[in-house]
Write a structure and sequence with these properties.
This protein has 10 helices and 7 strands. It has 234 residues and is an alpha/beta fold. A 7-stranded parallel sheet has the order 1-2-3-4-5-6-7. It is globular.
Length: 234
C-alpha cells in the first residue's frame, strides 16, 4: 500500500475517487527531491500537496515552484520538524500561498507525546496563523487538535475561516459518535473534510464511521468529498 499503485488499488476498493497525497520531510535537503516526485504523480486520482521544511533557505520560492507546476497546496508538520507555525520566519510561506493555495497543517500532539514535552502545533498556535492571514485557505488536521480535543474545541472549532479534517490515527472510532457529531455540528459540517492518514488507517473503516453518524445525507456528502472539492478547487 505504500506505493502509488497500492493507494490507487485501495481507493478503488474503498470507493474513493481522489486522494490528497501529503508530502513530509525530515531535512531541508529532502524538499526538492520530494516535491519533484510529488509533481510527477499528479493525475485524475492523486492530488499531491508539496512538502516544506522550516530550514529551507528559499521557502517562498519553493511554494512558487509548486504552484507553477500545478500543485494546489502544501503540508506543514510542526511536530515532526520542531518549529512553531506562528514564527515570523514562516510568514513568507503564508504570503506566497496567497488566497488560492491551501495550507494543510498538523494540529495537536502525538499519541506518544510525554507530559511537559514541547507541543509545537498547539491549536492556539494554528489559530495565530489563521488570524494573521485570514484570507489564506487553512485546513487544521486532526479535528483541529490531535489528542487535544478540549483545546481544539476552545481554539479552533466554531471559528469561521478554518476547515478541519477527520484524520485521527489509529482510528476515528476512538472518538465517541455523539462527541464527534457535536464537534462537526459546532464547527459546521461544511467546514469538515474527510481524511484518514492512509496507509496508517483504512479509508473504508473511516468513511463507514462517518456514514454512520446521525447527520443528514447532504452533510455526509459534504464531509466525504464535496467540501474538500470546493475548498481546494478540484
Amino acid at each position: 500500500t505504500n506505493t502509488v499503485d497500492g493507494i490507487k488499488a485501495h481507493m478503488r476498493i474503498s470507493g474513493v475517487d481522489k486522494s490528497i497525497v501529503l508530502g513530509v520531510v525530515d531535512r531541508p535537503d529532502q524538499v526538492k527531491r520530494a516535491n519533484d516526485w510529488l509533481i510527477s504523480i499528479q493525475d485524475d486520482m492523486l492530488v499531491p500537496f508539496g512538502a516544506l521544511h522550516p530550514g529551507l533557505e528559499d521557502k517562498a520560492g519553493e511554494v512558487r515552484r509548486l504552484r507553477e507546476n500545478g500543485i494546489k497546496g502544501i503540508k506543514l508538520h510542526p511536530m515532526m520538524n520542531s518549529f512553531y507555525p506562528d514564527d515570523p520566519q514562516m510568514f513568507p510561506v503564508y504570503e506566497e500561498l496567497g488566497e488560492d493555495m491551501v495550507l494543510e497543517i498538523h494540529s495537536g500532539r502525538y499519541p506518544t507525546t510525554k507530559p511537559g514535552a514541547t507541543i509545537f502545533a498547539a491549536p492556539e498556535r494554528i489559530m495565530n496563523v489563521v488570524r494573521q492571514f485570514p484570507k489564506m485557505k487553512v485546513i487544521a488536521l486532526h479535528l483541529g487538535g490531535l489528542y487535544m480535543l478540549d483545546e481544539a474545541e476552545r481554539e479552533v472549532i466554531g471559528q469561521g475561516n478554518v476547515l478541519v479534517d477527520t484524520t485521527w490515527p489509529p482510528s476515528l472510532r476512538e472518538i465517541a459518535s455523539d462527541t464527534l457529531t457535536a464537534i462537526i455540528n459546532k464547527h459546521g459540517s461544511h467546514k469538515v473534510c474527510f481524511g484518514t492518514d492512509f496507509p496508517l488507517v483504512s479509508q473504508v473503516d473511516e468513511s463507514d464511521y462517518i456514514a454512520s453518524l446521525p447527520l443528514s445525507d447532504k452533510d455526509k456528502e459534504g464531509i466525504l468529498g464535496e467540501n474538500a472539492r470546493a475548498f481546494i478547487g478540484l
